[in-house]
Design a protein that fits this description.
The protein folds into four domains: 219 residues, Rossmann fold; 81 residues, no CATH class; 96 residues, no CATH class; 125 residues, no CATH class. Helices cover 59% and strands 6% of the residues. The protein has 25 helices and nine strands. The strands form two sheets. Strands 2-1-7-3-6-5-4 form a seven-stranded mixed beta sheet, with helices on both faces. A two-stranded antiparallel sheet has the order 8-9. It is globular, with a radius of gyration of 31 Å. The chain starts with 6 loop residues before the first helix and ends with a helix.
């Protein structure tokens, strides 16, 4: 826990200590009470010192265990293999299209002597197929490689297969490939190594705040060169930031760090021309076009015998390898679109032969893409178009479920206003609804009864007022918080709650809650002992026990993560929802009981319930899941996405429209996103 996270307990302790001193000084028997207090404090400090010593030993042992960098690297390697093996299968890369690569002829690479580390080399000739990239990379003395290609040429697929190949061939002490999308790098707030460590912790929660390894180990792996960054999509970085990105990357890899980078050819050539210096000792290879024969072989793979739908198109590809259709199908993306669009038996691939230009073929494939995947393809197209346009307005954004609320207009203000309206609704429902029911069923005989319709209207107005007031107060709070963040030039990510993972088993929960109850009772008994005038009361003792249970629930129910599987978006959403509901229920019930036990006045008791709801809303329920629920409500309310938003995203991933990177979703290809966005 960083120092900045100790301000709340430190402030609470300071306030409690100040109140205790005031209580002693204002008493007529200050010396006597002070003497008793000193005795109790000495005993508490002695026990506390013992507890802290034991905790220190346990923490030291745990730190030595989880800070084993080699063990952490092995854990990461297993997670990477499982993650990208699954994703490669989802993208159809188990049998990839046959694509060749070779040393680029563009002036973007250092001299062959620098790449090889031998002044005798004056020419460097590398070539092969995509599955050979891992062997070629391992043969480079500097272990630095840049892969460039035309739009849709398969750079991301090549990066995935390269990362998988290197991880499977990894020997003891070798760095672990970590595939990252450069579009997620906020270069204003994070330097290169900090960003890599942050993405490592986000994509693999075992290296997160509550992971068994933790963010410190993630940072150490990056700084020690035990992570091999595989950086995908330099061209997807905003144009103004590409040169800065290359400079930052070159500064790090200049220390003989391994690196893989992908980019579109023209964009990379432009960046190197502006930068003036090539990246480290990186060899630069360029992906070639898909040969017509390779496209024909891929399109007919898996087709049942006797199905002649592809015969005419395949004959055109083989007979005219430089023709219109062959030129249009010269990228893996176009071949994938054709295979998907005409995979159903009722379609005719020969329709592509009627297109007169490569652009016409490409547009035809985009138009036929969704009808092959969704029965109601018009509705699906509108939904994808909405998401793509919202992403286009926030460069660098993705479809991480915990960041989706940023796609809302006035995101922070709208989310806070919605939460405020919900809190107002809950408060009025708990406080006024019983009175409404009682007033309708049991009218006061001493007063002239109001008609039931008038009572309902009156309570409806009060409900509406509570919703409006809650929305206004919440909106002002969200706007102020966002403004302070911008004014202090702090990163917007501070307003984004990352998902929480894991929950203790029932036995562990019960053990911790029993300990919390015992702690609360012990605190009450200590107070009663210090002041003989306080009689022992089970009500007050139970109130202190409930308060201890609330604190223990919020501080101790989220365990260390021991993730043996890569985190999937639906899994992380379910975990965060489970923790939020558990902590919220314990907090609102426990605090309501504590605050209601302070007084017998019914009005003050109602006020205590209101305070409990508010504290619950701003503490355990201020989480990523709540913001996701808000964004899916607004998207659904305006007919932009279905109510089951996560199910829609999962279905799009299964169909291949989206790809998964860590715990987030992205469009399968930037050109598909641009097509839906109309750009």
């Amino acid at each position: 826990m960083g120092l900045r996270r100790w301000w709340l307990p430190s402030g609470a302790f300071s306030v409690a200590l100040l109140g205790l001193l005031l209580w002693v000084s204002r008493s007529d028997e200050a010396l006597d009470r002070g003497d008793k207090l000193a005795g109790v404090a000495g005993a508490v400090l002695a026990v506390g010192g013992l507890v802290i010593s034991v905790i220190g030993v346990v923490v030291a042992v745990r730190a030595n265990r989880v800070a084993d960098h080699a063990q952490a690297a092995d854990t990461l390697a297993r997670l990477v293999v499982r993650q990208w093996t699954r994703e490669a299968g989802a993208r159809g890369l188990t049998r990839p299209i046959d694509i060749d690569w070779a040393t680029t002829l563009r002036s973007v690479a250092p001299s062959p002597a620098e790449v090889v580390g031998d002044p005798r080399f004056t020419r460097l000739t590398l070539h092969g197929a995509v599955p050979d990239l891992a062997d070629a990379f391992r043969a480079l003395p500097g272990r630095q490689l840049v892969v460039v290609g035309e739009p849709g040429s398969g750079k991301t697929s090549a990066a995935i297969l390269l990362a998988l190949g290197l991880t499977r061939q990894r020997g003891p002490g070798d760095p672990v490939p970590l595939l990252l999308s450069l579009s997620t790098w906020d270069m204003v707030e994070h330097d290169f190594e900090t960003w890599v460590a942050h993405r490592l912790a986000v994509d693999h929660p075992v290296f997160g705040e509550r992971g068994v390894h933790g963010p410190q180990v993630a940072r150490a792996l990056v700084e020690l060169g035990m992570v091999l960054p595989v950086l995908d999509g330099l061209d997807e970085v905003a144009r103004a930031g590409r040169v800065f990105a290359v400079r930052a990357i070159a500064e790090v890899v200049g220390r003989n760090r391994p690196l893989v980078l992908t980019s579109r050819s023209e964009e990379y050539e432009e960046v190197i021309r502006e930068h003036g210096v090539a990246i480290g000792r990186a060899a630069v290879v360029e992906l070639g076009p898909v040969r017509a024969a390779a496209a024909a072989d891929y399109l007919t793979s898996g087709v049942p015998a006797g199905d002649g739908r592809w015969d005419e198109l395949v004959a055109e590809l083989r007979d005219h390898p430089d023709g219109v259709v062959a030129e249009a199908l010269s990228t893996p993306l176009a071949v994938y679109l054709a295979k998907t669009a005409y995979g159903s038996p009722g379609t005719d691939p020969a329709d592509l032969l009627t297109c007169g230009t490569p652009d016409a073929v490409e547009n035809h494939l985009y138009d036929a893409y969704l009808p092959a995947l969704y029965p109601d393809h018009d509705r699906a197209r509108r939904r994808f178009a909405f998401l793509a346009r919202r992403l286009a307005r926030r460069p660098g954004s993705d479809l991480s479920w915990w960041r989706l609320f940023l796609l809302l207009p006035g995101a922070h203000t709208l989310v806070a206003a919605t939460r405020g309206a919900f809190i107002g609704t809950m408060v009025m429902a708990i406080v006024l609804l019983p009175g409404l029911v009682w007033g309708l069923l049991q009218p006061d005989p001493g007063r002239r009864p109001l008609p039931p319709g008038h009572i309902v209207v009156l309570y409806g107005i009060l409900f509406l007022a509570a919703v409006v007031v809650g929305a206004v107060v919440g909106g002002l709070r969200g706007l102020a918080r966002w403004g302070v963040t911008r004014l202090m030039r702090r990163e917007e990510e501070r307003l984004v709650h990352l998902p929480r993972y894991g929950l203790l088993r029932l036995r562990q929960v019960l053990v911790r809650l029993v300990f919390a109850v015992a702690l609360g009772v012990a605190v009450f008994c200590s107070i009663a002992f210090m002041d003989r005038g306080i009689p022992f009361s089970w009500d007050e003792a139970s109130a202190w026990a409930a308060f201890g249970a609330v604190l223990m629930a919020n501080l101790g129910l989220a365990p260390r993560i021991r993730a043996d599987e890569p985190i999937r978006p639906a899994m992380s959403l379910a975990a965060d929802r489970r923790i939020a509901l558990t902590l919220g229920a314990v907090t609102v019930v426990g605090l309501s009981y504590v605050l209601m036990s302070v007084t017998r006045n019914q009005a003050l008791r109602s006020l205590g319930v209101v305070a409990a709801i508010w504290i619950t809303a701003v503490w355990p329920m201020s989480c990523a899941w709540v913001k996701f629920e808000i964004v899916r409500f607004w998207f659904w309310a305006f007919g932009k996405t279905p109510w089951r938003l996560m199910g829609f995203l999962e279905g799009a991933h299964r169909r291949g429209v989206l790809r998964q990177v860590g715990g987030t979703y992205e469009f399968r290809h930037r050109r598909i996103q641009d097509y839906f966005a109309g750009t």
